[in-house]
Amino acid sequence: MDDPNSPRPTEHSHLLTPSEQQRITQTLHAQLAKYPIYQRQPRRALWTVPHLLSLPALYVYWLISSLLPSWRPVPSWPLFRAVNVKFIRWATNTFFRSNRLPRPDTTREPSEGQKEELKSRWGARFAWIEGVDVREVGEPVRGWAEAAKVEGRRVGGYWVGEEVERPEVVQRSRARGADRAALRALEERGGQSGQSQQAKNKVMLFVHGGSYVTGGAHPSEFTSFTPLSSVRYSHTLRAALSVEYRLSSGFPNTAENPFPAALLDAISAFRYLVALGFGPGDIIVTGDSAGGNLALALVRYLVEVEGIGSELGGLLLLSPWCDLSDSHEGPEGSVVRNYDTDYLLGLKASMGAYCVHAFCGSVSPRNPWISPSAKAAGAVPGEAEEAYFHGWPRTLLIPGETEMILDEQRTLRARMERDGVLLTYKEWEGAPHDMFAMWFMEPERTEAIKFACRWIDGEDLQHEVQ
């Protein structure tokens, strides 16, 4: 008979074994030898200046080589899209290798002038989110945090939509929550509440993408299209909170904020929303790319530790990065197959290895909390087991049809469906990775966010994705 006190599968330590640590380190050093990061002058300038000067000629070449639809990676793409996909890959590589990826200062509050600009340009507000006490965080996250010497820390957040964070609005929210409970009880007894199903009672908790090493929550960021547009098009979202979670860094830079630092910040944000009067059923956890990975980890914590996952309002995943291991790599995989139809750097750069090394720290990238799509086959015994999704909330998963990490999202879909998740899945035709962050993906990204908002509002969209 099994010991009732034995840990569940995802409660094992999942710390790196010596052999895995050696393998990951060797991969990173091999990649950096081929595609180095230029940290110091004059090497940085000697590489960066010629690289920047080459851009005009490159842009002309991209234009000419994409003039005819048959010359483009996806013939249905307009010319400006075919060119900008190449430009985004060039720009990402340039910023990464020159060690200039933009990273916000998460410890500084915007000035009064910056707050005025937030309000006038985007209708946004800044708020502090107090960090959790690690001692009040459940296992296995507490153990990982202690092993990594990571503490909860105050981080910023940006609100758009109704000013639900104001004290008087918080009081009304709590009263409204009590009213909704009474109305639900009335309806269960057969009475009529008269309350519209489209009442604005939901809030989005948004965590941005950026490979865990770049990007931010500020409304000027590319990824802020999702919270800004969701509040605009949804009939039930009152507001959206974008979390300025801590970003990671690693060799050859100073190691900072390894896993589970970002997860602690996401837990802090969830508790902040609950303290404002929102119930779990009011909260839509949302993330794109690496933010989708973080959203998955947050929901796993809420399901497996707090026991409230199935009560959540929903999980919205936009091109989530769900396998940080190499288990989906191969000559026939989407990482290779879709290289020309996406803008990610992939295996032809050191950024992927750097991000995995910086983010995972001493925890295995095959850990189901980090890579819920990782294939256990071929792993060192005891290193990993397959992720499960029992008791998870309703989920909308939108990958791009032409993106490089498509296969791992298909694996995620299969596992969620196997475990009975109420899943809506739609591969967006002709879309690269995280089209929601790319200005050149109109009108598709607006159509997709409107689709997502209909799901947020409770519409059954299964008939549209068959």
TrEMBL record:
Residue ranges constituting the Alpha/beta hydrolase fold-3 domain according to the UniProt record = 204-436
Q: Positions of the region Disordered?
A: 1-20
Quick check: keyword Hydrolase in the entry?
yes
Q: Short name of one Pfam family for this protein?
A: Abhydrolase_3
Q: Domain of life here?
A: Eukaryota
What are the UniProt keywords, alphabetically? Hydrolase
The record's annotation in Gene3D superfamilies points to:
alpha/beta hydrolase
Record-linked PANTHER family: AB HYDROLASE SUPERFAMILY PROTEIN C4A8.06C, ALPHA_BETA HYDROLASE FOLD-3 DOMAIN-CONTAINING PROTEIN-RELATED
Q: What is this protein called?
A: Alpha/beta-hydrolase
Look up and give the organism this protein is from.
Calocera cornea HHB12733
